[in-house]
Structure formats: C-alpha cells, structure tokens
Amino acid sequence: MTGFDPSDAPNPEMAAIMARLAAEDGHLPDPTTLPPAEGRAQAEAGNHRWNRDLPPMETAELTLPGGIAPRPARLFRPASARGAILYIHGGGWAFCSLDTHDRSMRCLAEATGMAVIGIDYRLAPEHPYPAGLDDSVVAWRALPEVLAEHGLSGPIGISGDSAGANLALAVMLQEQAAGQRSPDFGLLFYGVYAVDHDTDSHQRFGPGGYGLTTAKMIRYRDWYVPDPASWAQPAVSPLAAPDAALGALPPLYLNAAGLDPLLSDTLALGDRLRALGRADPVRVHRGVIHGFMQMTSALAEARTAFAEAGGWVRRFNQKA
C-alpha cells in the first residue's frame, strides 16, 4: 500500500501498545528536552522492553574503523548466512545503540538470511554532523575485509531505520560521488530524508499523540546539524540530491509507518525514484507509528515488515 491517508488510525494491537506506553512512560519527560546523557538513558530503558526473547543466532562483538577512532560493532550471523548488511540504528542521530536495536538486527538477519553488522557510531549533540556519517562511511569501506575475516561472502547491503536510514542513504550517495564501491542494495525503514517539517504527514501526525513529534524532530535536527547552512546538503537531506545521483543508486526497498510524521519523506523519495524510471518498492504499513519495527515481540505488523523486507532481499540475492 502506498500514499498518504490522513484518516489512518492505530490498528488494535498498535492501540493496545500505545495505551501500554502511556501507562508505563506517561509520567516521563520528553527525552529530547533532557541533557543528552539523561535522554539516552531514558531511551535505553524504554527500548529494553522490546529486546526480550531474542531470536537465537551466533553473535560476536567487533571493532570497526571509525571517522577518528575505532567504533564498537556487533555481528549477527544466522545459519548458512550469505553476504552481509551493515545496519545503522535510528534514534534521531542522538539516542539508541546496538543494545536498543539488538532484537531488530536479529530479526533482519533471520528474515534476509544474511549476516547483519550493527555499527555504534558517534552521537549528537556531542558529535554533530558529519561525525555519525563519517563513522558509517569508514565502517562501510572496512566491511569487505571484516567479512573475509569471518568467512562470509556474497552480496553486501546497507540498512537503517529513521535517522539510521538517513545515514544509510547518505553513505550510498557519498560513496557514489567518491567513486567508491556502493552497496549492492539498500533497505531503508521509515527514514528522514529532508529538513522539511511542513509536509502533509508532519501536519497530520506531528503535533502529538503518535510518539514521534515535529518538535522532537526539530530538536534532533538542531543537535545533529546545528548549522542551517548545511541543511540542504544531500548528505543531510538526501531528497536534495540531483536526479542523476538518485537515479544511479543501487536497488532500494523503502517502507514507512502510516501514522508517522516522516511518512511524507518516504513517499517523496519514492515519487522521485519512480519519476526517474526506477521500480523500487515503497511499502506503507498502515495503522502503526514511527519505530514500530522495534516492537516485533508484541506487534504482528512489525514481524510482517521484516518478513516482507527479507523476502525482497532473498529475491534480489537469487538474481544477483
């Protein structure tokens, strides 16, 4: 399903989860109004509820090169893994970690049949743009050597959710411009692709009631890119990239949440790609909020999202 539906509403499971979150967290302050370390601690605690009953698989703690110093990373290796995906977690470029996204990365590895390597990049506001992007680029360039060390071969993709999807797309654009090896494919989950808070979905879902708000996105933006002169750069706002750059991207799989201020970003990116003659799928998951793929332990639509993205990757790898 594609398109913006202002009448979309939470499905029954999502409504029950939203009620639970209101009961458990309603007394807590907006984490983006706290000092960054306190906001991060609150985000870590809030995500702990989803990282239970973890799908079993081989894991390893790694160290990948970073922009100025090595960065922690984590390998998830399902049985008979072929190829690998570099995963960049979301959290407004400022929150979350390998731990908050542990279950999600396991689900991605299971669904795709590929190893997943998550990178713990530097976070804003202590490390504003381009620190997180630099760490992601350097980690991407080191990936083939890391995979060889672990006896892995096959296609290499990149993925991320929310701000992580922004970074993943920025990595692709930057590597393309630099003449470096691009990923074989990209999986982009409910990403932020422009510094634009006046879109239809921001106006409908941004004021509040659906988790992520426009006010939070503005604070995240100001933490990550405090200089407004950089907001229009394609490495910050990929929708500002020229047609030639977008048209030359590797195959992409895009999804979005129907009740998300960022929904219009994905729809706009999908429209740009289609206008260039590309056939990248754009899947809108109705009745769920931003970040819903964190909730696989409690939300069927989250499990569906991984299954569908994984199915696309498996079909892509069969043709590769």
Automatic annotation (TrEMBL):
UniProt keywords, alphabetically: Hydrolase
Catalytic activity, EC: 3.1.1.-
Keyword presence, Translocase: no
Active-site annotation: S162
InterPro entries tied to this protein: AB_hydrolase_3, AB_hydrolase_fold, Lipase_GDXG_HIS_AS, Lipase_GDXG_put_SER_AS
Annotated spans, Disordered: 21-45
Keyword Hydrolase in record: yes
GO molecular function, one term: hydrolase activity
Domain Alpha/beta hydrolase fold-3, chain residue ranges per copy: 85-293
Similarity comment: Belongs to the 'GDXG' lipolytic enzyme family.
Protein name: Acetyl esterase
UniProt organism field: Inquilinus ginsengisoli
